[in-house]
Amino acid sequence: MDVIVERDEAACGRVVADVFDRAVRSGATTLGLATGSSPLSVYRELIRRHREEGLSFAAVRAFLLDEYVGLPVGHPQSYAQVIRTEFADHVDLGGVFGPDGGSSDLSSAAAAYDALVVSSGPVDVQLLGIGANGHIGFNEPGSPLDSRTRVTTLTSQTRQDNARFFAGVDEVPHRVITQGLGTISSARHLVLIATGERKAAAIAAALGGPVTPECPASVLQLHPRVTVVVDEGAAVGLDRIGV
Ligand code: F6R
């Protein structure tokens, strides 16, 4: 596992963008994208490179990690919409796919999305953020390390954490469809970005703690190719564990 510590969020974004840039220019056609705050610096930098440096995503199909259940199509906080606003509308991606959180048969929609990711994959580079409780995608603590894409329920901590994107915590959906830890782990290269001290405990547990469903991101320790990019705030726990 490569662990890279950068000064601030913008520098982290540039380092992660370098990984995506290199992959795309050398022929990657399948990328995994995350939403939330953590990837925004990466998307800003990739958009800049698209505009100024000829980085083209025309041959790339992108797959989202997760989606809220029950938000109307086009809701500004649905992840399908967020990825358009923050990234896809500004570049030339060949396609963007995500789970259908509006389906009347959510289990089938989750299984269909898992099958799509598998048949389109393996994902060349998968971008990840991490929750303060160690979740990746929306695999909350207790998620089996070999789990597949499924409907699951957010913890109250994650709903509180994500309330900042909505009018209030009551507006945050309880249920989501998320790629499972097994699905995520089938990507060739996992790249996790985390910034701020609020993520430090989760980063230390993920990288230096036991591999356990209680810390879903600890599944990264089992993967042959992982790059973790953190700022100094998110790195504060790493010295103690010798990473
Ligand atoms: C989002 C996702 C989540 C977030 C995590 C961190 O698609 O899969 O795992 O990466 O909740 O969110 P932020 O970056 O907003 O702190």
TrEMBL record:
BP term (GO), one: carbohydrate metabolic process
CDD domains, A to Z: GlcN6P_deaminase
PANTHER family in UniProt: GLUCOSAMINE-6-PHOSPHATE ISOMERASE
Gene Ontology CC annotations of this record: cytoplasm
Entries under Pfam families matching the protein: Glucosamine_iso
Source organism: Mycolicibacterium hodleri
Protein's UniProt keywords contain Hydrolase: yes
Domain Glucosamine/galactosamine-6-phosphate isomerase: 11-221
Record-annotated membrane-spanning stretches: none
Superkingdom field: Bacteria
UniProt name for this protein: Glucosamine-6-phosphate deaminase
UniProt entry keywords in alphabetical sequence: Carbohydrate metabolism, Hydrolase
InterPro entries in UniProt: Glc/Gal-6P_isomerase, Glucosamine6P_isomerase, Glucosamine6P_isomerase_CS, NagB/RpiA_transferase-like
Gene3D superfamilies per record: 3.40.50.1360
SUPFAM superfamilies: NagB/RpiA/CoA transferase-like (SSF100950)
Positions in coiled-coil regions: none
Gene Ontology molecular-function annotations: glucosamine-6-phosphate deaminase activity; identical protein binding
